[in-house]
């Protein structure tokens, strides 16, 4: 049913067939500016085959609002295959908003052919303007839960990602977004990840029971505040571009992580063997690897058994692996592996560093704050500032010659 308004339309969806196609039909009918209201119910997505990219819901229209009626969680979009085929390489996401013809593997860092580069540029030129989704549960998809790609102006509000096996809530190559009051859990990579994006606010979410709770890579201007991040392998990961699939941006600065509750991130690492994520040891609250110009402030970081806050060079963390740190075989690094000009201030640390992991081969101690760079691996960053973290007796380890956490980047009184 379509209800006309002055400048747009409201399309209402009920679970006639209990199928995602009920919602997709309204999406395909919608015009820019329309709103789709979805009645409570379970909408199942069954893949057609294992030969081409497909999505639970596919959004290609500018300025579309997708809203679940009733209380958050009443509308469930569920992956429901009829066979035991592994669909991870063809079912890209439960909800996917991107320009027409632009799939989840377009615009990756490894795309170097003229054809691939031309397609990525065409996708960027066709960027979708404005997408809003509220109140959906997206469950059990073999890759990602809710994802944007080449979208400018997006809002994810009060959604829930359940057991989507790669990443839960995942804005990529997008800009000017708000991710607020969502819940995400059960991912074997990251519950919530901002990648290749800029000007994104992440406020009041809860992420748990995943390998990484919250992650940022190759992004610019990301504000993360008032989130609850608990019971993951790693709470928050801020990673060097080589930890991401998206190409680097000219500026990748100003990730502000403040006033979050980061606790009890000690879960066993269940990531796919051989991946970067599989190397992460359990028991770290917040981890910066090879990134610069960011702020970690006023967070509560408690009961993470290995490290409360870690700031490490990228090559140090990866033990000089030439695939991730080519400087060890005489090649220039793709991006500077150092940590530089980061502010770590006014964080409250307690109950951390009680049980160092047995599997991480780096001989680094369990402490509240860990700071390590290895100059021999090209990590020469300066200008970091550790100040006013609490309590005064927190434990730390530093690779600085004097053994102290660096303060050369702190503002002078």
Helix and strand content put the structural class at mainly beta
Helical element count?
Answer: 3
User: Whole-number radius of gyration?
Assistant: 22 Å
Q: Mean pLDDT, rounded to whole units?
A: 93
Number of strands: 34
Helix percentage range:
under 10%
- Spans of 5+ residues with little confidence (pLDDT < 50)? 1-5
Strands across the major sheet, in which order?
1-2-3-6-9-12-15-18-21-24-27-30-33
Largest sheet: 13 strands, mixed
Beta-strand residue percentage: 35-45%
Shape: globular
Oligomer: single chain
- The rounded distance between the terminal residues' Cα atoms is 65 Å
Summarize this entry quickly.
This protein has 413 residues and is mainly β. It contains three helices and 34 strands. Strand 1 and strand 2 form a beta hairpin.
Topology:
Layout: E1 2-4, E2 9-13, H1 20-29, E3 35-38, E4 41-45, E5 54-59, E6 64-68, E7 75-79, E8 91-97, H2 114-125, E9 128-134, E10 136-139, E11 144-149, E12 151-157, E13 160-162, E14 167-172, E15 175-180, E16 183-185, E17 190-195, E18 198-203, E19 206-208, E20 212-217, E21 220-225, E22 228-230, E23 234-239, E24 255-258, E25 261-263, E26 284-289, E27 295-297, E28 300-302, E29 307-312, H3 314-317, E30 343-345, E31 348-350, E32 367-372, E33 385-387, E34 396-398
Parallel strand pairs: 2-3, 3-6, 4-7, 5-8, 6-9, 7-10, 8-11, 9-12, 10-13, 11-14, 12-15, 13-16, 14-17, 15-18, 16-19, 17-20, 18-21, 19-22, 20-23, 21-24, 22-25, 23-26, 24-27, 25-28, 26-29, 27-30, 28-31, 29-32, 30-33, 32-34
Antiparallel strand pairs: 1-2
